[in-house]
Amino acid sequence: MMKRRMISLFLVFTLTSIFALLGCSSNTTKESTSGDEKQVTLTVWGDQENQSKVEPAFTKINKLFMEKHPKIKLDYQYSGTHQTIDTAVRSDSLPDLFYVQGNKTPMMKLYVESGALLPLDEYNLDLSRYSEEAIAYATVDDKLYSSLPAFMDSQLIYYNKDIFKKYGISEPKTFEEFISIFDTLKENGVTPMSMPGKDEWGRPWLAFSLASALANDALTSLNNGEGDFSDPNIVKAFQTMHDLAKNDFFSKNFITVDTSGSQLAFTNGDVAMMADGTWSHPTYSSTMSNLGTFYIPGVEGEKLAPLSLSNYTTYAVSANTKHPEEAVEYLKFLSSKEAQQIVAEEVVGAIPTLDDITPSKDVVELTEYDSFGHNILTVLSDVSTDKVALNDIFMREIIPGLLTNELSGEEAAKQLNDALAKTK
Residue 258 and residue 376: Cα distance in Å, rounded? Predict the structure, then answer.
């Protein structure tokens, strides 16, 4: 009796299991033939820090992309920060795509070395519209790893036209004329320049401009693995920062002033000039009807714009994505003229570097430069290693040292050379 009961239970269990498996098999088949099953979803991490700035553009870009690629759905999240991306790289939990800053920092190179990024050369992205600098931005060890940059940030001088007019000052045509402006203003009791000495990411913009204007050839050599920071023109750029601070050409007690306070002093008319990034142009132009701008001219008068390519449209693909072909399609779209024109129209202050992208009216005056110059921070990042970060030394030690007169130009150059030697 017991044996017969056990056989019955076994048959019931077996039949139930078979029906369950058949049911599962039937559901799987149904899903595989449905339209939803064929749609791939890509998770994308956008730039959280600049969300308010880029969201209008990416809302349009992502919608247009999905209309053109109905089998690809984008789960676009503003989750990309330096910390979240670094953590995801270490924990092998990257999304399908995420924004990167190219060669502006050492991070993309480190991601490549860790095996986190998908090489893109075999996917035939169109590079024909782009400059060597743009391709270098997206390249590590001669391999392409991100979509291409089409916009730039730079540093220049904002000035109060009314103050300049009152004292007969014109936009400088040479570097000597630029320096003479400080003397003229101080002699007339006007504070020449506002300087946010307290902020690590507010105080270096003048140094970036000076290095490009005076030492661009030397920076080119460093970028090519030649020369060092003892070049006289680099020393002169550093010494100029030191001298301007020492001669009280900056706002009183500037070393304790943050960026907001420094900008307010300028927009209120308390100082005549401020060195800042092109990204701050909307802040000034919306509050000042007498705003003027110029790039610092070099000794020969050429106006070089320190080139810092923007990461608005530069994204990389995780090496572990399950959908590399679809992910690369998104990169190709971000590198297209169509998507880039949306950025130009929707992102306030976006300055195109490509001739076929029409800039918005608010940035036309920011394109009045003769050519691009090196951004010293990019050069420092390129020559840095994971153990010796010259870019961090420059930002956290060299700039404060020059502004507080603890370092002369030669001493600053020597400190960077000592660090450079450790990268060899």
Answer: 22
Tokens 């300055």, residue located: 351
Q: Is pLDDT above 50 for 31? A: no
- pTM, full prediction: 0.79
Give tens-digit pLDDT for 176-219. 999 999 999 999 999 999 999 999 999 999 999 999 999 999 99
Q: Which domains does the chain have, with CATH numbers?
A: 39-149+313-346 (3.40.190.10), 153-308+363-421 (3.40.190.10)
Polymer length of the chain: 424
For every residue of 138-181, DSSP letters joined together read TEETTEE-SPPP-EEE-EEEEEEHHHHHHTT----SSHHHHHHH
Tell me 394's DSSP state: I
pLDDT bucket at 129, cuts 50 / 70 / 90: very high
Single-letter code of the amino acid located at 281: H
Q: Which residues contact 338 (CB under 8 A, 6 or more apart)?
A: 64
The single residue listed with the structure tokens 């504070």 is 191
Q: What is the pLDDT of residue 17?
A: 40
